[in-house]
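Why should sequence recovery work at all? Because a backbone constrains its sequence more than one might expect. Tight turns favour small or flexible residues, buried strands favour hydrophobic ones, and helices have their own preferences. The token representation captures these environments compactly. In the example below, the structure is given first.
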């Protein structure tokens, strides 16, 4: 009886196990994750030279698709300006009368795909030709003005595409009094074909470079796992779960990707700034007002997000392939 009383006293005096609330468990897990995120970042800089070399290689690989994206985006803007600057010249019959020209102008003004119509008379055309050429004195000896009157048609914005201009030209060719319809769209079509080919090339190069990023990060994480083999074995011996051991390596891969993406963004900006003076000089030759467009916030966020995701996926592949195979002896 005395022994039972003593047992009761011992039991009543023993500390009670407190139940942790759900919010407490969630808070602990989040705190643990944050700790491992920052710990994995500090672990990278224990070998700064190797980390910097890896990050710069990733940045170079990611910067090429980024630079190509900027070049393609600006090339589209340039072709858009050229499309907008394209005009359709209507060379009229020499024997057309002025009243008939006015009727034709009024009719063209009713077209939904024509923005404006400018009339250049035969006399105005001759004077402009004299000013632009070195044959002004020779032209004074001509008995008759050889130049026809011209209507300069500016299409609307919707009709400034290659297909829209072709449709408009087909309609104008059916109008009476027009001898020749002239619009130079061949070079625009060739340029658009080149841009489409460039897009295919960029996609292929980007795919190869993204695969190279996966391989670089995966191999780097694999080396880290092998270098910490003894530490991993000890952690498993003391009962650490696989997820607890894996997380620092997964976060390290994500850090590699994020840092590589940041380097790629900086390299892209530097490359565009370096090319800006040459591009501006080229645009000046074509009398175009143009300013190079850099990566916007959405594009930068996309670049960093893709880079971080690639690093995470690459580290996940290495972790699943190598870390789970390590078992304490």
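From this structural description, the recovered sequence reads:
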């Amino acid at each position: 009886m005395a022994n039972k009383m003593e047992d009761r006293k011992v039991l009543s005096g023993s500390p009670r196990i407190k139940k942790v609330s759900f919010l407490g468990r969630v808070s602990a897990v989040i705190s643990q994750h944050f700790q491992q995120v920052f710990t994995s970042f500090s672990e990278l800089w224990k070998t700064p030279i190797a980390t910097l070399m890896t990050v710069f290689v990733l940045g170079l690989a990611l910067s090429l698709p980024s630079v190509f994206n900027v070049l393609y985006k600006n090339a589209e803007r340039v072709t858009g300006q050229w499309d907008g600057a394209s005009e359709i010249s209507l060379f009229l019959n020499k024997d057309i009368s002025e009243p008939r020209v006015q009727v034709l102008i009024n009719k063209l003004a009713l077209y939904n795909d024509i923005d404006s119509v400018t009339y250049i008379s035969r006399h105005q055309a001759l004077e402009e030709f004299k000013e632009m050429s070195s044959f002004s004195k020779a032209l004074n000896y001509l008995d008759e003005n050889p130049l026809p009157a011209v209507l300069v048609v500016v299409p609307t914005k919707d009709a400034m595409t290659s297909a829209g201009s072709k449709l408009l030209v087909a309609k104008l060719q059916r109008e009476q009094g027009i001898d020749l319809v002239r619009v130079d769209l061949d070079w625009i079509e060739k340029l658009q074909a080149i841009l489409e080919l460039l897009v295919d090339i960029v996609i292929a190069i980007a795919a190869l470079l993204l695969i190279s990023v996966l391989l670089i990060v995966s191999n780097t994480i694999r080396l880290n796992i092998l270098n910490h083999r003894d530490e991993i074995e000890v952690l498993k011996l003391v009962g650490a779960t696989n997820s607890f051991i894996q997380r620092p390596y997964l976060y390290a891969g994500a850090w590699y990707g994020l840092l590589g993406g940041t380097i790629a963004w900086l390299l892209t900006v530097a490359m565009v700034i370096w090319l800006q003076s040459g591009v501006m000089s080229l645009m000046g030759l074509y009398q175009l007002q143009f300013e190079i467009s850099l990566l916007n916030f959405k594009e930068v966020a996309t670049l960093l997000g893709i880079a971080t995701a690639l690093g995470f996926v690459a580290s996940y592949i290495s972790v699943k392939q190598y870390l789970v195979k390590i078992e304490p002896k």
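A few observations help interpret the result. The chain has two domains: 34-81+189-325, 87-183.
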